[in-house]
Design the sequence.
């Protein structure tokens, strides 16, 4: 492909993605109604249903303006030579290609975060607060951003620097070394995320001895799940929404409960939620998902290695000389249709896995308690309980509530 064709594609692809997303949101909105649907009677009342619709309408409006603004910025950066300007600024700092890449992505990443802060702040302090979810202080919001920048410098910069170094040292074979590096990084993150990253943002404390802990340990022992510990995280520091998750594998696996979950759910409902998470582990969903992610990363890096040295990629962005970092920007846009296809497949598999974990609860615990917990979570979090099927197909990694209830009940 020549410069004009690539330029056309890297503008067409984001625009097409924006149009598709808007269409999906519109389809989703056609499922809303003024009256409580019969299928939701007994799950939520008229007031909660109306409130959930208003909540999603406001989020959709914010999503539209945020997406439209970001699309306009991308088109401007491509058409007006914004990426070329950032490249020139990076090259003025150093002639070392690794330093140039790091400075370039530092400029792009920092600028992108800054221009999106107003949208994030509006979501947190206006929409989330209006519907009773936000408990984040301005100080916490600011320090979260500072910590995120610190992590990007401490973790992201060395990884990116090494990948760039591999490219200049090994040429087209760099993808293999980069793949090994990213695989090691992914495994380490899975093992130590809860111990190293989470404490920077939240406090985790072991679930104290008592009837709930005994019930959890009893179920874990019954199903052959070697439980290292159960932790409670101070999720109420930022939101009233309830959740629970499973992290790590092998000796580093742990279950984490949000304190908001403990405050509003019965012991049997909490055990049912954790039984679902244990089901993922027992069915090997965690390991298989990690292996699939590693494989897909290798495919992506290999495809990138085929075109990274093509100077036409950098020329399409208006740059005076080719660069690894510029090729990565163009490839990221060109790869997005394939990424969308992969996302559709992984979401489909993920929904299947959720049904499988629910089935594990049905076979080993009390399915009605998981059903009760799912209902409570959906109503409390103002979830869209009747999404459009096509929207689910594109976006949902978990099946809709009614589908899960049908299989449980």
Sequence:
């Amino acid at each position: 492909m020549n410069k004009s064709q690539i330029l056309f594609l890297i503008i067409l692809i984001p625009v097409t993605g924006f149009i598709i997303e808007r269409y999906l949101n519109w389809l989703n909105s056609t499922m809303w109604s003024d009256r409580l649907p019969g299928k939701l009677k007994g799950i939520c009342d008229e007031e909660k249903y109306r409130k959930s619709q208003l909540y999603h309408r406001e989020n959709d409006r914010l999503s539209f303006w945020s997406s439209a603004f970001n699309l306009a910025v991308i088109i401007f950066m491509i058409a007006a030579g914004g990426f070329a300007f950032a490249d020139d600024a990076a090259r003025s700092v150093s002639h070392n290609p690794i330093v140039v890449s790091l400075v370039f992505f530092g400029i792009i990443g920092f600028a992108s975060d800054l221009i999106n802060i107003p949208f994030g702040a509006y979501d947190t302090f206006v929409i989330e607060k209006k519907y009773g979810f936000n408990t984040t202080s301005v100080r916490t919001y600011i320090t979260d951003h500072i910590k995120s920048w610190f992590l990007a410098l401490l973790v992201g910069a060395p990884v990116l620097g090494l990948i760039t170094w591999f490219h200049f040292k090994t040429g087209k074979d760099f993808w293999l070394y980069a793949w090994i590096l990213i695989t090691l990084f992914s495994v380490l993150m899975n093992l130590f995320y809860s111990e190293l990253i989470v404490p920077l943002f939240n406090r985790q404390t072991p679930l104290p001895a008592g009837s709930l802990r005994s019930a959890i340990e009893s179920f874990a022992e019954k199903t052959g799940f070697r439980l290292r510990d159960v932790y409670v995280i101070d999720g109420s520091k930022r939101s009233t929404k309830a959740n629970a998750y499973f992290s790590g594998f092998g000796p580093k696996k742990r279950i984490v409960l949000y304190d908001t979950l403990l405050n509003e759910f019965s012991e049997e409902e909490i055990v049912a939620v954790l039984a679902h998470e244990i089901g993922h582990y027992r069915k090997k969903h965690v390991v298989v998902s990690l292996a699939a992610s590693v494989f897909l990363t290798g495919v992506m890096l290999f495809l990138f290695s085929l075109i990274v040295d093509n100077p036409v990629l950098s020329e399409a962005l208006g740059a005076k000389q080719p660069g690894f970092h510029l090729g990565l920007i163009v490839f990221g846009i060109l790869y997005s249709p394939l990424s969308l296809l992969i996302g559709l497949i992984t979401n489909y598999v993920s929904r299947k896995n959720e049904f499988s974990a629910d089935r594990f609860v049905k076979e080993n615990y009390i399915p009605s308690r998981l059903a009760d917990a799912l209902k409570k979570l959906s109503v409390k979090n103002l979830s869209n309980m009747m999404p459009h099927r096509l929207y689910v197909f594109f976006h949902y990694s978990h099946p809709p509530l009614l589908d899960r209830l049908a299989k449980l009940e």
The two ends are 55 Å apart (CA to CA). Strands lie at 204-206, 230-233, 244-247, 254-258.
